[in-house]
Design brief:
alpha+beta; GTP Cyclohydrolase I, Chain A, domain 1; two-stranded antiparallel sheet; about 40% helix; elongated
């Protein structure tokens, strides 16, 4: 899978159409969690990087440069 992807409303978890590097965002969130002393692999945080990446994709979906 290409880490930079076009997202469309093809499934229930879909995001508005936008191009974002979801894998890079998820990696950055994992790095931040570790930097503040959290374990990004603990059960309560496992989905956090995905959720944050989705949030940024939604926030910036309206920007068309």
């Amino acid at each position: 899978m290409n880490p930079s992807c076009n997202l469309t409303n093809d499934h229930e978890d879909a995001l508005p159409e936008t191009t974002v590097d979801l894998e890079a965002i998820q990696g950055a969130v994992r790095t931040i969690l570790a930097a503040v002393g959290e374990d990004p692999d603990r059960p309560g945080l496992l989905e956090t990087p995905r959720r944050v990446a989705k949030m940024y994709a939604e926030m910036f979906s309206g920007l068309k440069l």
